[in-house]
Amino acid sequence: MGTDIAQNLAEVRERIEAAAARAGRDPAGVTLVAVTKNMPVADIEAALAAGVRVIGENRVQEAREKYQEIGNRAEWHLIGHLQTNKVRTAVWLFTMIHSVDRLELAIEIDRRARALGKHLDVLVEVNIAGEASKFGVAPEEAPALVRAMAPLEGLQIRGLMGMAPLLDDPEEARPYFRRLRRLAQEIQAENIPRVMMEDLSMGMSNDFEVAVEEGATMVRIGTAIFGARRRNA
Ligand SMILES: *Cc1c(COP(=O)(O)O)cnc(C)c1O
User: Which among 13, 86, 105, 126 is most buried, taking Cβ atoms within 10 Å?
Assistant: First the structure.
């Protein structure tokens, strides 16, 4: 199992490098976030042994259990929906939260982070495809949310996160990634104090190469590394 993970990781890294090369980008500008939701700690250990540094989890409680064993050998990123009553734990556990999609949540992160003397890195999640099943702020409301969040000193906005719909052909995801990149550029152009738009978290197992071609600085990849998700029994 461990060798599969190492092998899969090597392949994913090669594909990221090739996609970056096609776009004339430095592959060092793309952070691989290994998505370990529903995967056992043994798989995380295998990924760490194969050089993974950043772990993506979508549930606070699950991440907290794994953190007991893995600790700070990985950098923990929250990629899933966050409820305000879980913010307290999320703020001490995670280095970055990719899924901030409402002011109420940002205010709670700010409050909890300042209590710990932290400046938590966050991304604003945008529902780029307007899918009812997905979280994220509507694209047209994203600039106003960023402006409202900007003064909150317990957090640091670093960019945007988005997901393309699940499509048969990854090429069809391209317009969604492009839209997220343009939105980041538009917000950047407003020169809002304290706001950075340097990170674009986009691209998953089925479409990360297109995302890298379109400027992703973080790709969130689960099944291409770990195989089909199992229960973390
Ligand atoms: C599960 C998940 C991923 C990884 O998906 P794969 O298709 O397994 O690569 C990425 N981002 C988010 C937000 C997820 O929930």
Answer: 126
